Amino acid sequence: MLGMFLILPVFALYAEHLPGGDNHTLVGLALGMYGLTQALLMIPFGMASDRIGRKKVIIFGLIVFALGSFLAASASDIYWTIAGRALQGAGAISAAVTAMLADLTARSIAPRRWPLSARPSASPLPCRWWRVPRSIA
Fold first, then answer.
1. Which of 64, 89, 92, 96 is the most exposed place for a label (fewest CB within 10 A)?
2. pLDDT one-digit tens code per residue, 97-121
3. Residue 121 falls inside a structural domain
4. For residue 56, what are the domain limits?
5. Residue 6 lies inside a defined structural domain of this protein
6. How far apart are CA 61 and CA 108, in angstroms?
7. What is the DSSP string of 89-135?
8. 8 Å CB contact between 49 and 30
């Protein structure tokens, strides 16, 4: 994920050199298009991974993401950059990866496998406020 969002601080400066990059709305659209398409396609990809298998959806998503990355990197103007970012977001495989992680992890060690931000113990409030057992936090 770091590679995807590493461009955020410098993209506005880089976009000024692209044709159409002087339009701040288009620059914002180029930045946000990834998240928009990912949000729209997360549930359909999750459903597809339940039907046809997690590995097939993950491989397909990685190929779509790679094509989007190539398109965004070789974009000659802001419109092709927007299209590339949309294609990158269309490779929304995090639901399939999370489901695969849940499938492959034993229930006794599952809480240690989730990202730190998804754990109840990562919250600023103590777990007892939500009555979450300390064993899963």
1. 64
2. 877 877 777 666 656 655 554 544 4
3. no
4. 11-104
5. no
6. 30
7. HH---HHHHHHHHHHHS-TTTHHHHS-GGGSGGGSSS-GGGTT--TT
8. no
